[in-house]
Amino acid sequence: MLSPATLALALLLLGGTLAQAQPAPTREPRRRSFTLTGAPLEARIATGIRTFLVFSVPIRGKAVEVDPTRIKVVASGDAILAFEPLSEPRPGECWTLRVPLADGKASEVAEFSLVAHPSEVDTEIDVARPEESPTACPTCAPCAALSAADAIASGFIDSGGVGTRPLGFFTDAASGFELKEGVTYRAGGWVLVDAEIIPPPRQPAWRPTGATLTSKTGEVGVRAVTVKPGKQPNAVRVLVTTDVPLPSAGLDFTLHLNGAQGAPSLSIPEVKLPPAKEPKP
After folding, report:
1. From which residue to which does the signal peptide run (predicted)?
2. Mean of the per-residue pLDDT values for the chain?
């Protein structure tokens, strides 16, 4: 028969074993938005779960400052950074991630405090600069929302106007992506493809890290890739601005959206551009 001391020790060891065998608590994926204030922004991380930082301004993704023994930078684009923790901070501990911004404004760096939360994990964080008041906006600088007069005066829209063409519904059976709706735009000096995409169920936080627009004659220069929330749940709106293709390229293109490392990419065929408008005499 076990003595009381031996029984107590056995129960203590058994309790510890059972406690260790309990599965890790499920953490609810969250999508949050922050405005840069100069103070560190909190990001809730978890081992094996990828976090996407989506910025409203360009970043210098190759110059990110982080401890590589703790955090793996999976991919970086013009305005998107994806990372995955190799381990987690202890309770009360935080790690630092610094992302240099490339728009030439203060603050020049977005700093994040990486912490572990018992029930939540950030799968996407949208980061924006505070809006400037109208009085602080120089008259020579482009505004976030252009009036018709601003657009014409800046040459963004000329007398030829803007041609549009709808994108047809498309499903990639192999990857599970869906193109729900979209529009192509063409002006005298630029082309834009606006597409609303629903990622596969296994990739709910998917975001593109870059894009190419190609025809039978080659690629068109991509100027910017903008990512915004879509109209439908889990949808992502991708706006790709490019140079105007040469006439020899025709009107039929393929839009390829690059996924982060370990995430799928998407190619959308039959992206038809509006024809170029004939110049007025």
Report:
1. 1-21
2. 81
